[in-house]
């Protein structure tokens, strides 16, 4: 990959500079991007040296988060994790059998490419202005914030329709997300982590997405499902926070 502009001039060798939307933009969670929280959680568990860089820009692929690492840009959370796993010889997934790796990948894809739309639809399309804008602060200027909300809502809606899920009713979209959560809860059961006693990538992914529902106090239909039917997911969230986000309150501005 060609060298890209580094946004942090005082860079250090083998330190990951994690570029994410500014923490100050969101309330209740460290970042409103579930992919950013997923990646930061993975870095914390892997004990890789990193620094968070608040940054409104996108990668060359038009994505956030991305990293600058040894003066090169690496976009996309999954490709970043693959690269850093090889570079640092991370052994997080070594405890899994081939079958368990297949199951883990299936859950990851379900969360990132299916369940995510129920979250994004509620907060960006269905209830952006009347609920979510209170917890996402794109600007101190009310007019700019409203314009941002309208633009983002329209963009997410168009992408959801192209994906296919946006062609369903609101109730059907939330049912899809709720059924995904029920499936996750059934598989998690009474295990410490999704795949057993040790955290793996799927736990980082699940945590990054689930906290967008559990820790932002808006009226997600999926929130009711978690609170009433899936107490093990709430316990899972607390477990990750306690063990890997001891500074949670400081990081949630």
TrEMBL record:
Residues 34-126 form the Thioredoxin-like fold domain. Signal peptide: none annotated. One of its GO terms (cellular component) is cytoplasm. CDD domains: GST_C_Metaxin (cd03193). It holds the Pfam family GST_N_4. Coiled coil: none annotated. Belongs to the FAX family. Residues 178-240 form the Metaxin glutathione S-transferase domain. This is Failed axon connections homolog. It comes from the Eukaryota.
